[in-house]
Design goal:
Elements lengths: L3 H15 L2 H4 L65 E5 L15 E4 L2 E3 L2 E3 L2 E4 L5 E3 L4 E9 L3 E8 L3 E11 L6 E2 L4 E5 L9 E8 L2 E3 L5 E2 L4 E2 L3 E5 L15 H4 L13 E2 L2 E3 L6 H7 L4 H7 L13 E3 L2
The protein binds zinc ion.
Length: 316
């Protein structure tokens, strides 16, 4: 934690010094915590977690560059990242591979409310009615980005995954993880509850990409409990990118791997390899005759990193 804590602290400090007030506040009203809850993070309910379970270097943050090195432990979403999707059609995300299984967030549930527009506003997730105390599990491997109490969402956990997605688990009865803690698919992170603005025990489950929510039923069949496919395809319209700039002026966005269309070949281009279906880090290291360790270092990746179709990997 030695390096990470100053990093987060510095980031917050810069925000406080330089940002307008509204930058600190969530843009989406549905994400906004009640003012009374803002400064009261949930006390950890499970004491004494092995320090090895926590990340201690920024390169261990999943999809760190994809999120323009944004990592905060306070809110579900602070601001749109302003990444341009230009004219690119669909976004492809590798959901599941041999090393990265999917787990349903809870068992013994009934879908009680679907994702979608309501008269009262947008319902940004799917509600799974289940008994209080039913285990809630993280869907994929990842790192807990946020674990705290909101007056609206109640006790809530956000996990950032190596495939670029974030999943949100709200109205929990109890939270069993802490920010910056590494979790593996299927690991219990809390229990189903009725906390926050909720009218009955259920898990409010959200799927997000670059902080924008999309219908979880696009990803997984809630009648069978299985993902529809190993690769998730979403359109920018489905991502509710209304608040995102169409043409970003942020030069970093132009290099963002998330927005690249599927490449037609896997050859190196300007020192980068564009990830195509079936690529592995090991195969790329062989192809360009770079030791795997060097390749990982150059790209701030770990051996467990999940490649995304279209992702650019530095090879020179
Ligand atoms: Zn809900």
């Amino acid at each position: 934690m030695k390096r990470l804590v100053p990093l987060i602290f510095t980031t917050l400090l810069i925000f406080r010094l330089s940002a307008q007030d509204d930058v600190l506040r969530p843009v989406d009203p549905a994400d906004a915590p009640n003012a009374s809850a803002v400064s009261v993070p949930t006390a950890p309910e499970t004491p004494a977690i092995d320090p090895d379970q926590f990340i201690n270097e920024e390169y261990q943050i999943p999809s760190y560059n994809l999120y323009l090195q944004d990592w905060n432990t306070e809110y579900i979403k602070i601001k749109p990242l302003g990444i341009s999707f230009g004219n690119s059609a669909d976004i492809k995300i590798i959901l599941v591979d041999n090393n990265n299984p999917f787990t349903m967030p809870c068992d013994n549930y009934q879908v009680s409310s679907e994702y979608g527009q309501r008269k009262s506003g947008m319902h940004t997730g799917i509600d799974l009615a289940a008994a209080v105390g039913e285990p809630v599990r993280t869907c994929f491997d990842g790192v807990v980005r946020m674990a705290r109490d909101f007056s609206s969402y109640g006790k809530t956990v956000v996990v950032r995954h190596y495939n670029g997605l974030e999943t949100v688990y709200a109205h929990l009865d109890s939270i069993m993880v802490q920010p910056n803690q590494k979790v593996t698919s299927g690991q219990q992170i809390g229990m189903v509850g009725n906390s926050g603005r909720s009218t009955g025990a259920h898990l409010h489950f959200e799927t997000r990409f670059l902080y924008e929510h999309f219908n979880p039923a696009k990803m997984v069949d809630f009648t069978t409990g299985e993902p529809f496919s190993n690769v998730l395809t979403i359109t920018k319209e489905e991502l509710d990118f209304a608040s995102v700039a169409v043409e970003s002026t942020d030069p970093r966005a132009a290099q963002n791997p998330a927005v690249t269309n599927l490449p037609s070949s896997g050859s190196a281009n300007n020192g980068y390899h564009v990830v195509k279906q079936g690529d592995t880090l090991y195969a790329i290291s062989k192809q360009y005759k770079i030791p795997l360790s060097k390749l990982l270092e150059m790209n701030h990746l770990t051996e467990d990193s999940v490649l995304q179709l279209g992702q650019k990997i530095r090879v020179r």
